[in-house]
Amino acid sequence: MTPLGSTLVRTPGHRVLPVRSRVASALRRGLWWGVLSLTGGVERRGRLPRGGCVVVANHSSHADTAALLAALDARHGPAIGAAADYWFASPWRRRICRRLAAGFPVRRAGGGMADLLSMTGELREGRAVVLFPEGTRAEDGTLGSFHRGALVLAEEAGVPVVPVGIAGTDRLLPKHGRLRSSLVRVTIGEPMPSGVSPEAARDAVHALHDRTAAEPLRDSAVRRRVASVVTSRLGLPLAFCWAFAEALSWPLMPELLLGAVCVAVPRAALKMSLGALAGSLAGGLLALHLAAAGVHLPAPLTTDRMRAEVRAELVVEGASAVRHQPWNGIPFKVYGAEAGRASVPASDWLVASAAARGSRTLTAGLAFAAFGLLLRRHRQLYGRYLALLGVGFAAGLALIVQGWS
Length: 405
Fold this sequence. Notes:
- By secondary structure, this protein is of the alpha/beta class.
- The protein starts with 18 loop residues before the first helix and ends with a helix.
- α11 runs parallel beside α13 (269-292), α12 runs antiparallel to α13 (269-292) and α12 packs parallel to α17 (346-375).
- A 7-stranded mixed β-sheet has the order 1-7-6-2-5-3-4, sandwiched between helices.
- The longest helix has 30 residues, at 346-375.
- Helices cover 55% and strands 8% of the residues.
- It has helices spanning 19-38, 63-71, 84-87, 91-101, 112-117, 120-124, 149-157, 169-172, 198-214, 221-230, 235-248, 254-264, 269-292, 304-317, 325-328, 332-341, 346-375, 382-403; strands spanning 42-45, 53-57, 79-83, 103-106, 128-131, 161-167, 184-188.
């Protein structure tokens, strides 16, 4: 008898999980795919066979669980074997493990085999039971010996053993280390018979891990060149000088530069954004003083209507009129020059422009960095992205100038 709300979807020759379980698994997969996408991306090679199976994988990080939940198909409803003495030692850890990782407890000090065999029915229903046969996380990247429990479970349930190699999690979240950005890759191997030996299973996982870790990341030569500049001593001065010049006369806004460099090197986004912000503020102050002294700098791609709008805002709002700049398309240089001609106090201007430019520059930089993390697994497309960024910027700039003409 099927419980109410747990309608089964049947496929000839294969048992499948209740719809409710599959939905929960899909939500977990979406959650961890999203998290890993923000920390460097996750990619998968291969697929699990239809029906239940025991997945055995290498284990070097707590992030291995997230990687497998993000990579394995939701139709298998992956359940993760977790150390009972750690993940089920307190109520809050138990809730986190069950709800976010579909974890079930496995005792490491006696009784573990009984815990594993309790999953026999789940396997026969079509579930994938994920185990780390090493029993603990490796610290030096080497693969330890495999315990027999996972293989005994597969033999008892009559399901295949599927070796999986995980690479990148040891960099993403090292044992006793801090979280950092890294692409995670999961390679699913060919199913092995349930009677396979621990040594053969270990060798298969070891080969998959080594192959996955050694596979070079596809990249763009253009991105590598941009990254080499950004991470050199020239990176910060470039952001400062670009924004400084734009606040005076240069027609290309600093967000265009951030769109290129923050996607190429997401970890440099905050540094480059702060450099651009400092350049904008310094250039804006200089533009104000030059205009107050009667110096008129060239301002390409600006219009008389822009200047008239800014003058009207300054009369009503003073220095705080610059708060409109991030949204109305009028270049920052126009506000700086008109503020000088209107004799706006430099201190008031600095405070108001720091808030306006800061919100726009930092938001843009961090948004481009987030996109760069999502694009990380497609780095080879960076050149095309750069071309689209240039075309999009040119089209947007043309529309803004036309709208203010």
